[in-house]
Amino acid sequence: MNIGIFLQIDNAKILPVGLELIGKTLAMMGDIPHKIHGIVAMNNEDKGLLSDPEFKHVMSYLDETFVYEYQDKYLTTEHYQDAVCDYVRSQEPEILLVGATPLGRSFAPRVAAHLKTGITADCTEIGYDQTVGLEQIRPAYGEEILAEIVTPKTFPQMATVRPGVMDPPTEKGERNPKLTINEGNLSQKNLTIIARQVKRQPGKLDQAKLVVVAGNAIKEGEDLALVKQLAHVLGGEWGVTRPLVAGGLAPYSRQVGVSGTILSASVVLLLGVSGSNQTLTGIRKAKKIIAINDDPDATLFNKVDIGIVDDWKNIVTNILEKREGKLNG
Ligand SMILES: Cc1cc2nc3c(=O)[nH]c(=O)nc-3n(C[C@H](O)[C@H](O)[C@H](O)COP(=O)(O)OP(=O)(O)OC[C@H]3O[C@@H](n4cnc5c(N)ncnc54)[C@H](O)[C@@H]3O)c2cc1C
């Protein structure tokens, strides 16, 4: 059985979600015979990637990598669709996995439509069953349930998977990788990119080492200002749960969780958060999770490293006052 994994390149590097998908595939397939293929689409200028040690590291977990090289300087969703469809036609994989990055989200459904197969977008978990194949798991019906979706009749079985949710392989890659280079040939183009300007947001939430997350207990802008101040004092970033975005208190770019940002922070401080699965999915990689909640029976306390029963504002103002006292004294 062939399993294809799309490896996205950004700034001449493979995005980490590629390795996360490989790690998950290795874990879910276990002893079931399979071959893992990497699929890469790039332009001629990205050629240096092939000798990059990080690329070789990723390759060591793969049985074969199919590289599609295009002449065009900038690739569009049409190039990615073309490359992946060509790969599917030649290798007939049973499963095809793509990271749910903005790029993956834009071209993977087009590939599925073109191949007349199913796709589940934004999976937070995947599994493999010998009878039905790929189990595609994602929150559904108002996030109250985790839906297990299977598409046993059409192939490849496709899923896009949220970056940061799966773990990369823990063991050393020992496969003997084969590299197949194809000349990409996109004869019909609807879109040509002439120039591209990348705008990166400063202090990105997903890269912060420490994040203070404000929950629904925070209802006012001036309370949120305290949270921001605390994050600043601690040298970290601030995020919020979804109700604060829905209520217009914070922008979506600050939402932590399954439909927001997945954090890679080592320390996360939750203030007035109940700990829904949607929030926790966004912070599962943290080494230390500290929660302040005034409800002693909050189930969240079973899921965190340190739980403090108190009013969040008491503690935060206390820390800020002490800190101010130190600075003034
Ligand atoms: C499609 C969909 C996608 C979603 N995606 C996300 C997502 O990405 N991220 C996300 O976070 N949510 C998401 N949600 C929402 C999620 O289901 C929960 O509703 C949300 O996480 C709850 O946020 P909360 O814990 O801040 O609020 P609540 O559940 O209201 O919890 C507030 C907590 O604060 C405590 N509290 C109250 N006052 C104080 C005080 N003074 N001091 C201390 N503690 C206090 C309470 O005891 C309570 O535990 C999504 C929902 C849907 C439908």
Characteristic terms for this protein:
elongated, alpha/beta, 17 strands, Rossmann fold, 2 domains, 8 helices, seven-stranded parallel sheet, binds flavin-adenine dinucleotide, five-stranded parallel sheet, 329 residues, single chain
CATH architecture assignment name of the largest domain: 3-Layer(aba) Sandwich
Mean pLDDT: 92
The run of helices and strands is EEEHEHEHEHEEEEEEEHEHEHEEH
**Helicity range:** 25-40%
Give the percentage of residues in beta strands.
25-35%
Rg over CA atoms: 22 Å
Strand order of the largest sheet: 7-11-6-1-4-5-12
The tally of domains stands at 2
CATH homologous superfamily classification of the largest domain = HUPs
What is the global morphology?
Answer: elongated
The number of E-state strands comes to: 17
The CATH class of the largest domain is identified as Alpha Beta
End-to-end Cα distance = 68 Å
Given as residue ranges, the uncertain stretches (5+ residues, pLDDT < 50) are none
Bound molecules: flavin-adenine dinucleotide
Computed structural class: alpha/beta
The CATH topology of the largest domain corresponds to Rossmann fold
* Tally of helical segments: 8
The largest β sheet comes out as:
7 strands, parallel
Walk me through the structure.
The chain is 27% helix and 27% strand. With 329 residues, the chain is an alpha/beta fold. It has 2 domains: 2-183, HUPs (Rossmann fold), CATH 3.40.50; 205-328, Rossmann fold (3-Layer(aba) Sandwich). The strands form 4 sheets. Strands 7-11-6-1-4-5-12 form a 7-stranded parallel β-sheet, sandwiched between helices. Strand 4 (35-43), helix 2 and strand 5 form a beta-alpha-beta unit. Helix 5 (221-233) crosses helix 8. Flavin-adenine dinucleotide binds next to helix 6, helix 7 and strand 16.
